[in-house]
Design goal:
By secondary structure, the chain is of the alpha/beta class. The chain contains 23 helices and 11 strands. The strands form 4 sheets. A 5-stranded parallel sheet has the order 4-1-7-8-9, with helices on both faces. Strand 8 (about 195-205), helix 7 and strand 9 form a beta-alpha-beta unit. Helix 12 packs antiparallel against helix 13. It is globular, with a radius of gyration of 28 Å.
């Protein structure tokens, strides 16, 4: 796989973080709206802790929590992704847009790999894959079989301008309680019944009475405790007063990632490197017998086999079809969207930035971590007190009525009980809950022990979805343990993927599992195993996912100790084909160009013809006519092994492209 910006440990830690909900009063939203932000967006760039936290484990040993990040989101009472595990339309569109807008930069870092007679110029990084992976993992739906994406706390935010702030806090607290406990809503999901409520008084420095805000805050400390509330002062300047002062805008990158409506900001037209043939964004919709795949309209031209050359006149690759593509492909729109010109944080000074950062630190270290520590201790005490009775009864029952440990390798033979739901107070779920709490605060040894215990219980009950979740996180916990006391149990991940995909029919969870495991295998230089895993996850239900994973598999082959150059090229072609079907034409063109480095001049004329033909067609579709002419010209050779009919089709297409390129204005 290509190099990643984050280490695998950082990647996994950022994939599973404590979730914090936000409920804001209307007046509080008005305060943050001056900065074109809501309250959760205001906090987002400051949600990574820059200092270490400390907490005690159940054995009373002090544990250090490093580089912790929390996720803060507004309360939304509708699911973003169907619970069936099949990504919805909006989710597919988001992922497609993320990949579409992330392209290699002109003059970007390349990785030159020498393997035998080959000197290959290959992308050193694949930021489009990392962007896809990040968006995919951050948009994971909350599930009932695990608690990792459930909310641990809720920030109740009230403006200091309220007539009686305490009454507003009471209403927000009652609203949170109703959402969690009334049974009206299935989403959002909450980690534990006694959700931490943290009271935030938001004061607008530009127009509020600071002395009154301080007085209200003193009253709050008496009511909620000094560790249960906070006075956050913002908006220390007006937007007009500091117009000439350059203040950093750390919000844009976060808002861009989470917005489906944000328009892609277009840069100047790029020159075309000889290897990648990159261009500015054009319309990714050809409009010719199109259908929707992965949230993007794609053309029927892309639905051919990746190694199939098109035959003449009545086929998708004919001159008429190519002409239709050229006519119907629209030029790229100008970047006139409001989002591109919108500034954020215009009323905030650098001191305000520091205040927000300090607020996150105080909330996490004095509120959230003690709350998690208390709940881990309580769960541990409950499980220890139950263990003697329940486990002895369980063992006796198994002894007299049969049963025993269910071997993990026989999962395919087990009865599908994926619909099984444990009651909230079930000991098995309490173990899983404790494991997830420990994992989120980096207590990986204890988390592994709990996951391992839960895994055995779930397998005994043939609760396969729950078992797969415990296997997945047990494997990750084992890998993250300090000093790696045990080897990474890759077979746990393989079993979890098989169960998610084949038993529970949940491709979202299967994909998450594969993304995590592939990164771990890659970090251990097990590139062959990583490639095999990635290839297994390709399927017909998502061209975009298949394209990205095939490309990563290709990088695995080329990064082996003895690079497998032809496998790299072959999987790049497969990736290019799936990118094209997904409507990602620029990525498709890049993949074919990288593969051409291997096939060019090696005597594989039919393979060269196919790649050149595809490069020509994609280049022309992307309005790169000169590159298209060059590619088609390579097909027209005296020693061609194509049939005369096929050569005639190539010639007609070449002449059409040539005329369109050089004689377009002569008529």
């Amino acid at each position: 796989m290509a190099q990643c910006v984050q280490s695998v440990q950082e990647f996994i830690q950022d994939s599973f973080v404590p979730m914090v909900a936000v409920l804001c009063s209307e007046d509080a939203e008005k305060v943050t709206r001056k900065n074109n932000l809501n309250f959760s967006e205001l906090l987002r760039p400051f949600c990574r802790l820059t200092s270490e936290g400390h907490m005690r484990d159940p054995s009373n040993q002090v544990q250090v929590v490093k580089n912790l990040r929390i996720s803060v989101n507004n309360v939304v009472t509708r699911p973003s992704v169907p619970s069936s595990g099949v990504p919805g339309h909006a989710h597919r569109r988001l992922l497609s847009e993320v990949v579409l807008t992330c392209q290699p930069a002109e003059g970007g870092v390349a990785n030159v790999i020498t393997a035998g007679d080959y000197d290959l110029n290959i992308s050193a990084t694949t930021p489009w894959f990392e962007a896809y992976r990040e968006s995919f993992l951050q948009s994971m739906p909350a599930s009932d079989h695990e608690f990792l994406n459930h909310y641990l706390a809720c920030l109740l935010v009230v403006s200091s301008s309220e007539a009686v702030p305490v009454e507003k806090f009471l209403k927000l607290s009652q609203e949170q309680h109703r959402i969690q406990h009334s049974g009206e809503y299935t989403n959002p999901k909450w980690f534990i019944p006694n959700t931490l409520k943290y009271y935030v008084l938001l004061h607008d420095m530009s127009q509020g009475d600071e002395q009154r805000a301080d007085s209200v805050y003193e009253d709050m400390k008496q009511r909620y405790g000094a560790q249960g509330c906070y006075l956050l002062k913002v908006n220390s300047r007006t937007a007009a007063a500091g117009a000439d002062e350059q203040i950093p805008d750390p919000w844009s990158q976060y808002l861009h990632k989470s917005s489906l409506q944000s328009q892609v900001q277009l840069g100047p037209r790029l020159s075309v490197p000889s290897i990648y043939l990159l261009m500015y964004r054009t319309s990714e919709v050809d409009g010719h017998d199109s259908e929707e795949k992965d949230g993007v309209l794609v053309n029927s031209l892309d639905n051919t086999h990746p190694l199939q050359l098109d035959t003449p006149s009545d086929t998708p690759g004919s001159l008429d079809a190519l002409r239709a593509v050229a006519v119907e492909t629209k030029p790229p729109p100008l970047a006139t969207g409001v989002a591109a010109a919108t500034s954020h944080g215009a009323c905030l000074t650098l001191n305000d930035h520091d205040r927000i950062r300090l607020f996150i630190q105080e909330f996490t270290f004095r509120g959230l971590l003690p709350h998690i520590e208390k709940n881990i201790r309580q769960l541990n005490d409950q499980l220890v007190s139950r263990k003697g009775l329940s486990r002895s009864l369980f063992s006796a029952t198994k002894k007299w009525f049969g049963g025993g440990k269910v071997p993990e390798k026989s999962i395919a033979e087990l009865k599908n009980t994926s619909g099984l739901l444990y009651p909230p107070e079930a000991p098995e779920l309490q173990i899983r809950k404790m494991a997830d709490l420990c994992f989120l605060v980096q207590l990986y040894d204890l988390a592994y022990s709990c996951y391992h215990t839960a895994k055995k219980d779930f397998l005994s009950d043939q609760a396969m979805l729950y078992a797969a979740g415990a296997l997945e996180m047990a494997a990750v916990s084992a890998f993250l343990q300090v000093g790696a006391p045990r080897p990474y149990p890759a077979h746990y991940m393989d079993t979890a993927i098989q169960t998610y995909r084949d038993v529970s029919k949940n491709m979202v969870l299967a994909e998450r599992c594969a993304l995590l495991s592939a990164e771990v295998l890659k970090s251990q230089a097990k590139y062959s195993d990583a490639a095999t895993l990635l290839i297994k996850m390709t399927s017909e239900d998502s061209d975009l996912r298949s394209a990205l994973l095939l490309e990563q598999a290709a990088h695995c082959f080329i990064n082996m100790r003895n690079p497998m150059v032809r496998k790299f090229a072959f999987h790049m072609i497969l990736a290019g084909h799936r990118f094209s079907k997904a409507g990602q034409k620029r990525h498709a063109l890049r993949c074919y160009c990288q593969a051409m480095q291997v096939y060019k001049g090696k005597g594989w004329s039919l393979a060269e013809d196919h790649i050149n033909f595809t490069i020509g067609r994609q280049s022309f579709t992307l309005r790169q006519p000169e590159n298209a002419v060059t590619a088609f010209r390579h097909i027209l050779t005296n020693d061609s092994q194509q049939t005369s009919t096929q050569q005639g089709a190539f010639l007609r297409e070449y002449l059409y492209v040539y005329k369109d390129t050089y004689f377009h204005d002569i008529d």
